[in-house]
Amino acid sequence: MGRFPPPSVLPGVPRRHVLAAGTRLFRVHSAARAAAAFNPVPAHCLYGGGRFDATRCDAYGYLYAGLTVEAAICETLLRSMPFDASGGPRLLPHAAVRGRRVSVLRLAREVRLVPLVSGRDLAAVGQDSWLVQAEAADYPYTRDWGHWIRAGAGADVQGFLWPSKREPADRALILFADRCPDGTLQDADVPPVDLDRRDGVAWLNTVLEGYLAAVAPGGDAG
């Protein structure tokens, strides 16, 4: 599918996927922001930003997470990182982890998401796997589609769920602040991992090893 505008109305009825209260969510985020804090800054309509960020066309706080720590790390840190033609590990620059941490959250109440997982899920919103597999160059278009789905699917929709592009066995999600009551997210009783510390880098490398990746040696982790 790809770079064309959404139709005037949804072609089907978007389904619902309920995440139960108590579900754990994993998030890679700036250490300057609380783990449960939504990003309040809209992305530019054309430049930068993520797959389903808010823009000035549809302003809402947003929070990305994974249902596994692997999904959260792969979606955040391995985006657009090609494999080494020689077969060596992909090296993640220290700048990519500076000031970042991994936190575990839990849902204090259930949330209702539009799943964008199966062919039926995607057909209900007039799309195919492009919507959740497109690379960053197409994100202005996926953001526009996301705004349209958000508007048409119903006010009960609190976010989207889709297969992680970098770890297809797991799921990524976005939550919308304006549809999640205060207290929906709580810190889980798990210490965060600061990714720019030596112990954090060592922990991260154990996760990245399975993806043929590692933090580049020689950084200034403390």
From TrEMBL:
Protein name: RES family NAD+ phosphorylase
Domain RES: 42-187
One matching Pfam family: RES
